[in-house]
Amino acid sequence: LSLSLIENIEEDFRNGLKLMLLLEVISGERLPKPDKGKMRFHKIANVNKALDFICSKGVKLVSIGAEEIVDGNVKMTLGMIWTIILRFAIQDISVEGDWKDGLALCALIHRHRPDLIDYSKLRKDDPMGNLNTAFEVAEKYLDIPKMLDAEDIVNTPKPDEKAIMTYVSCFYHAFAGAEQAETAAKRICKVLAVNQENEKLMEEYEKLASELLEWIRRTIPWLENRVAEQTMRAMQQKLEDFRDYRRVHKPPKVQEKCQLEINFNTLQTKLRLSNRPAFMPSEGKMVSDIANAWKGLEQVEKGYEEWLLTEIRRLERLDHLAEKFKQKCSLHESWTSGKVELLSMKDYESASLMEIRALMRKHEAFESDLAAHQDRVEQIAAIAQELNELDYHDAVTINARCQGICDQWDNLGTLTQKRRDSLERVEKLWETIDQLYLEFAKRAAPFNNWMDGAMEDLQDMFIVHSIEEIQSLITAHDQFKATLPEADKERIATMGIQNEIVKIAQTYGIKLSGVNPYTNLSPQDITDKWDAVKHLVPLRDQMLQEEVARQQSNERLRRQFAAQANIIGPWIQTKMEEISHVSVDIAGSLEEQMSNLKQYEQNIINYKCNIDKLEGDHQLSQESLIFDNKHTNYTMEHVRVGWEQLLTTIARTINEVENQILTRDAKGISQEQLNEFRASFNHFDRVRIGEVEFARIMTLVDSNNTGVVTFQAFIDFMTRETAETDTADQVMASFKILASDKTYITVEELRRELPPEQADYCISRMTSYIGSGAPPGALDYISFSSALYGESDL
């Protein structure tokens, strides 16, 4: 390759660059870095470096100086080249030792053509036979004439060195073509192996992308379905399904998405390193497409859990209101039972004057009682309206029952007014009334109403979410208990009226009918209700204390969750900052950075148990219907998102360092150069380099116009000029060698020169040769080589 670049000996060696390259190729060693300038002193310096290297190999250069080579002195240049050939081309060929006994010559043939000589059958004590075998094989199979006689070599103490050197050089020339073909075949195998590996990575990416996009497509409609269930159990099952999705189903998909991005970045890096075009996934499967689909999934997911919790609270409120509605309706219906019949009676038509007046008083008491129940009817209507506003599933039944009560209430009002009108018409019949009965009735009715309200309050259902709320109920209950002594006094006073009635009756021998004409309440009713109130008070105390215990347990759960969340949240943030510092730190090697990142990754994996424990506490809180926590600003969703971001960040950072190591090893970048690249990348100055130069650099490091320049792309840019990569021309030249300088290649030549797998790969992808003079089945290796480095499906 180096000699093919030398066209004019007089001119090509004058700047010293090709001379240094020739010495590196012949010697297999690296020379000092050449000067890049074009001035005469730069050329003299490069030639001196080459001459110093020749002298370091023990070669004496007589009258050959750098100035003569730079000035194009042909005689001096040819003398220098002959000296190089003597030193590096044939110096190692010696007539002593192995050449004389024939073993070295047989070994040379066996090394290049093992099918011609069985080296195991040669004997060291038979130099004559060994030499004759080598001469015969060379003449028969290698077209090398027999220029030496075995007897002369063996029997002469010092054979003709130049004759042996000339003869041996024929072998090197004969095998040079074979070695060149072998090198060309190896180059093609290397290129095809890289291409096959890249194709495998592309297929894996397409498969992973398709599966992930399909999972997202199936999941989004499920999260978009916001049709509420009608029961608490069904909604809680939805919440459990969502919890399983976030904890069981989604985390593996997060890992798949991260792995997909890592595979894509690794593939693009390998394509750049092998001088291949960038990989363009199928339509709709770009990394950006997957990111957009994932973003849509998280957008839909964002409000789903909040909607579930809102619906559960709504159903809880609805169940509470429905039960309260039924209880109040039952109390009201119990109270109104028989009232229509009572108001419709015509008993005053046949009653005496005293009985009529008694009926009037009794009706006044009823009106007082009716007015007292107005609040309950309004409460029933208000609860029904709220149930309708909250979309209660059995609103039809609620509305029907409420409408029936309202209609009945209006009818009671109408009937009450009609009866009063009738009684007022006969008001002149009222003559006397027992004031004690009247007073009893007036005091008993409100006291009875008070007891009814007290019993209703003592049995009233409640729902609270904090200790403060239950303490408020306990305070109200304590205030109610403080009124019991006054109520007891009222009861004693009311019962004292009845006792006075009995006393008067006994004193004056009045036979009582046993019925108070002004009220349906009997002393026994007052006594029974009072006993019921006293029985309900301790039950209410017990219920409130049980709720206090439940709220205290909930508070412990809040504090337990907050204690962990307030540790885990800052820990995740700290780890994110530490990882970002490691990724930009230029101190230490990439291997040290990788070791640190792997240690961070292991620490993060080991920390997973704390996240799981926090998930357990979060589940206990939700099962206890705890929806807020004033002891921490971190919610479970915050911790989940932070944890997922931490896992993604450490994986991406590790992948970036791996790609940097891959780039460094592939391009021969030293650690010092890599540190300089990192410092330059961290202090990249757009203003200082100018807008035009900045635009040119951006087209190289950001070919997809994403607006983001990665450190990997920056390294590719910095090392682009010195990268040693295969090109399409090199692959074409290699195929041309295998094809014996023809512009086409046959299937037989491919199978003879390449391994079976690589040969089949080429045969399946090469197009037929359409030029003239080619045998049937000839293949076009030129278009195939171009396709390897162009826009194609290979």
From TrEMBL:
Residues 63-176 form the Calponin-homology (CH) domain. SMART domains: CH (SM00033), efhand_Ca_insen (SM01184), SPEC (SM00150). Residues 689-724 form the EF-hand domain. It holds the Pfam family CH. Keywords: Actin-binding, Calcium, Coiled coil, Metal-binding, Repeat. InterPro entries: Actinin_actin-bd_CS, CH_dom, CH_dom_sf, EF-hand-dom_pair, EF-hand_Ca_insen, EF_hand_dom, Spectrin/alpha-actinin, Spectrin_repeat. GO terms for molecular function: actin binding; calcium ion binding. CDD domains: CH_ACTN_rpt1, SPEC. Residues 191-218, 356-390, 590-617 form a coiled coil. Belongs to the alpha-actinin family. This is Actinin alpha 3a. It comes from Oncorhynchus mykiss (Rainbow trout).
